[in-house]
Design goal:
Blueprint (H helix, E strand, L loop, with lengths): L2 H9 L14 H9 L3 H14 L4 H13 L3 H16 L1 E8 L11 E2 L1 E4 L2 E3 L12 E7 L4 E2 L4 E8 L13 E5 L4 E11 L9
Antiparallel strand pairs: 1-7, 1-9, 2-6, 3-5, 4-5, 4-8, 5-7, 8-9
Helix pairs in contact: 1-2, 1-3, 1-4, 2-3, 3-4, 4-5
């Protein structure tokens, strides 16, 4: 499929009554598609992901369109949203340790490339602390400085490790043995049910 076909197919998955925070509806997206304003249409379609729950196929089509348009961050975001549906999502308020107290002295990238370890209260078979890996996306920021605070989105590498995690729970981020930061869980979304093949 080419870009217009992908965007049109994705737009057909958005309920007509849904609107973004700025009162944009899918009809506005169609107007941009008619005028070959593909990048604007893609950006608006991405906003619908915050307005309502959309299926995996929606995000897959947007990811492919963004990739064809060579919009790297947008493609990464849409692929991230696909992973959230497959593996679940944990939103948390993360505070990184200051540079003087941790090994990290540089900002962490915000666009989902970091996959740190997390102490989420699990124990190893010998009774020691066990950590679980989750990818990290910083919301609304390109990066997070040491000592900084931001809302982050975590995608568990092994979702079954995270089933006990609840809002309000404090977890610890590690990049090595020392704590790199602490986070308070805000929201937990389990993996989406697998859609039957058509």
């Amino acid at each position: 499929m080419d870009v217009p076909e992908l965007l049109e197919a994705a737009s057909l998955m958005v309920p007509e009554e849904v609107a973004t925070e700025n009162d944009i509806t899918v009809r506005d997206v169609w107007d941009y598609l008619v005028h070959d304003e593909w990048e604007i249409a893609l950006g608006l379609l991405e906003e619908f992901g915050d307005a309502c729950s959309l299926p995996l196929a929606f995000w897959e089509k947007l990811a492919e369109a963004a990739d064809q348009l060579q919009l790297r961050r947008s493609a990464a975001w849409c692929q991230w949203r696909c992973s959230e549906l497959r593996n679940g999502l944990i939103r948390a308020e993360l505070t990184l340790s200051p540079a003087a107290e941790a090994r990290r002295t540089t900002p962490i990238p915000g666009a989902g490339v970091l996959r740190p370890m997390w102490d989420i209260g699990l124990l190893s078979p010998t009774g020691g602390r066990a950590v679980s890996i989750a990818g990290l996306w910083v919301e609304n920021q390109p990066m997070l400085e040491p000592g900084g605070q931001a809302t982050v989105r975590l995608i568990p590498l092994t979702p079954s490790h995270w089933t006990h995690v609840q809002p309000g729970q404090r977890i610890t981020m590690h990049e090595d043995r020392a704590a790199a930061g602490t986070a308070v869980i805000l929201e937990v979304c389990r993996p989406a049910p697998v859609e039957p093949a058509r």
